[in-house]
Amino acid sequence: MKQQSNIEILQKFTLKNIPNLDVAVLGALELFISAKLPKFDIQFKKPLVVGSGNAAVTGRVLFADKEAVLANESDYLEKLASIKGIDGAVLISASGSKHAIPISRELKKRGIKTILLTNNDNALAKKFISKENLFVFPKNREPYTYNTSTYMGMIFGKTHEEPEHIYNFLLKKTKKEIKKDFGKYSAYYLLIPEHFSAMSEMFMTKFDEMFQPIVSGRVFTIEQSKHAKSVVKNDNELFISFGYENKIFGLAKNRLNITLPKNVDYAGFMAIVYYVLGKVQEKNPPYFQNGIVRYCKNSSKIFGYEIRPIVE
Asked: Which of 13, 146, 252, 261 is least buried, going by the fewest C-beta atoms within 10 A?
């Protein structure tokens, strides 16, 4: 029998067999090997870039080399009021719903030209966005909150990395480097390069979604790690370093070094870290799978519309 591709797994899974994050990563890369990404050119000189959660992190990545005012759902109004020179807005939201709806409504009310980057053709926020300013990126069917293909596609649109190269690296290199039994540890410490510090929150969010409060996760750069991050010792904390041979932090027996490809950029780095976290998920009880339906029911009440555990 022919083995299913990761995209096929994502297309067919149900609430009874929700895949782990590493499957979503490989499926996303399979998608982007062939999928075309929309081209967009931001003409604003000083845009307000706003998003919630990992959308806000994606904004930091997309505009890391430009002058921009970075904001989230809690502080965008304050920044609009206090920072001069904002000449437009870029709203990032995979679903184009939840906080994106009142934010886009408010921006339109203020007459601020707004570009929406989303993965949803039926985004509820698009009624406040001009058609020429709506950019819909391809995505896979995924468990709610994974948001792997969604934001990875937007980042690929900036970095222009080769998805096939990253895909092969994961299977031929990263997979073989994972020699620790992830089921033995109650805490994880990710050491990431300074260049990717903007993505720290993205990885912390994944720990929140998949493991917290049962399994702890911390993310710091090498330089940040030099400052009182290990005062309290935990013999069950695994230190995973990316692109750095860690000979300093954590117990010697609790270190795992993961190689990075040469010239890796944000999309490739996101894929590698998410893949490793998927392997952590694989070796732990299905905390996410057991909790996502209940979470979506509660979130539906909070936001006032149905949020489903599987995003089609």
From this structure: 252
